[in-house]
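A further point concerns the way the authors explain their paired sequence and structure data. An entry of this sort, consisting of the sequence and the corresponding backbone structure tokens, reads as follows:
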Amino acid sequence: MSGDEAPMVPTTAAVKAPARLRITEIFHSIQGEADAIGWRTVFVRLTGCPLRCVWCDTEYSFHGGDWHAIDDILAEVATHGAKHVCVTGGEPLAQKRCLILLRKLCDAGYQVSLETSGALDVSAVDPRVRKVMDLKAPGSGESRRNLWSNLDHLLPHDQIKIVLASRADYEWACAMLAEHALADRCMVLFSPVHGAVEPRDLAEWILADKLPVRFQLQLHKLLWNDAAGK
């Protein structure tokens, strides 16, 4: 550069924009599921899902939402003063930058859980995160979407959740429990579809078959009769 040339100044387009995610909502509540049940938790619900389970209770998260910079998400989470954070959806892993959010939440010292459908690859999720991964039973209408290779990426602190809409779903779940030695991998949760399977019936099936699984009801629905899933 000659002495009379001005130094190059980066254009606005050249400045890297902050990483963003499309968010349906961020809210503070009691965790109603999995091994963190009962803990005060901040939920970060990402927008979008490639699945359409027939019993889904969060269809409002499929579309819409607003873009938030990841650092702004962390700042909002911090305002609630909770140690537990649950990243959910929709299907949070449908947004690739979800992996960045998970890592930054762990770096900030939170106990982080991820609720994921089991249809998308979980291998790149930060190992500090507690993955709560669905296996979709036939009654969901999406059992063909199960990505069985995900089982090889589960850690002992992770959980497999199977939501059951019928006795046939229960029989399927029992078969998968045995075929894939699910209980040897991590905690397995059996949960009844609200209004489709009586909780007492499911509890009695588990007892009769002496299954190594954890029976689960959605605590938030018991507390607030919340059919929308919050």
In short: The domain at 19-224 is CATH 3.20.20.70 (TIM Barrel). The longest strand covers residues 20-30.
